[in-house]
């Protein structure tokens, strides 16, 4: 019995890791779905019912495979273990809550399990401490089902994916009344294909975007040696400027790429404005800024006439850009001597001669609904700036780029990304173009902005809310009244 218990825990761990590993390649979406279904079979094999550990091990394997790269950062060696130990609860608790139905061999046990998982996925991504990274809906980005993100949103798509996994498992295992599950499986596949006919209206005027790429490593970007900023100005920022073509509309710089704090002194302000005038372009420049005694991770919009707008990042990375409960931890010297970034207060939409560019910084590409909210407020193009030296030489830049592409699929808008030590690229409607070499470079793309479809965006907002409310009502009524039983 102990051998069987240990083997199921180990297999659950490996299936969780396999599910996470499928994220980096959009061609492996069905491997993710397979991992979920096979894991459901494994839970059904456990007698008398699946345990907390069988769910926890799957979640631990999933999040460890998703965050292992954090161990390569100085001072974060054990963070992947700690983070995975917490996030694994969001798979373990659904298993515990559905174990009653597995014990009774309820025909709907698999559907109930995955609806519980969906509800807990929404919970884990909620609020400032939320961690929506690699939510199931993001797996559809770039796949044949990508338009589902446009019609249903990230969480709406997650709901359909988990319901599909549950219906497939039920159709394969449940001995009686398989027909309803086969019908449900066919309907869900149809629902995922259905939005493929949707198309957005393109604006006729083309805009050339020049996306600059930098290669700063953490020890260079965050070092404090005297004269470092001057060195970075010459060796990195100056070299990036030299890559800008003579004719371009918008130049996008990576996150915090300018090595001086904003507001700048008169010399650097004139320097940047003169450069924008030289190229006759708009500059979207990643900087750190200081305002009313608070530090912000920001993007400036400037032209030949000066700096005319600023966006401050709204969704900060816990422990990376701010420390939760800092006031309670100030007794620690390592906490007392550091400063947090502050949260921005407004959406980032820059208007450039009639073009509305929705701005996001780094982690914000992993926030479900972020791009759709900007499209709903009038954005025609999305532009993300990021510093991916967190990922060093791992494959996690691909995972980050996948989230960025999902923002395009969700909003229906083209997206560009300018990265330091990551992927600089352009994506729209399943087509992408990106820099393939890890050097200071510039990617030039000609794109047509898109006019957002307000009706589709409104339906998506409704469907995401509906899927969450429906799931909660379904679980409550099924558990206590059993009125939705297919028995």
Question: Layout of SSEs?
Answer:
Blueprint: H1 2-21, H2 29-45, H3 52-67, H4 79-87, H5 89-103, H6 109-124, H7 147-173, H8 179-193, E1 201-202, E2 207-213, H9 218-221, H10 228-242, E3 250-252, H11 266-279, E4 282-291, E5 294-303, E6 306-312, H12 333-336, E7 349-352, E8 355-361, H13 370-376, E9 381-387, H14 396-411, E10 415-420, E11 425-428, E12 431-434, E13 441-447, E14 450-451, H15 454-480
Unreliable stretches: 483-487
Number of helix segments? 15
Main sheet summary: 6 strands, mixed
State which percent range the strand residues make up: 15-25%
What name is given to the CATH topology of the largest domain? Nitrilase/N-carbamoyl-D-aminoacid amidohydrolase
The total tally of domains equals 2
Whole-Å distance between the termini?
Answer: 32 Å
Give helix % range: 40-55%
| Structural classification | alpha/beta
Q: What is the CATH class of the largest domain?
A: Alpha Beta
Q: Care to count the β-strands? A: 14
Rg to the nearest angstrom?
24 Å
By CATH, the superfamily of the largest domain comes out as Carbon-nitrogen hydrolase
CATH architecture of the largest domain: 4-Layer Sandwich
Mean pLDDT: 87
Order of helices and strands: HHHHHHHHEEHHEHEEEHEEHEHEEEEEH
Shape field: globular
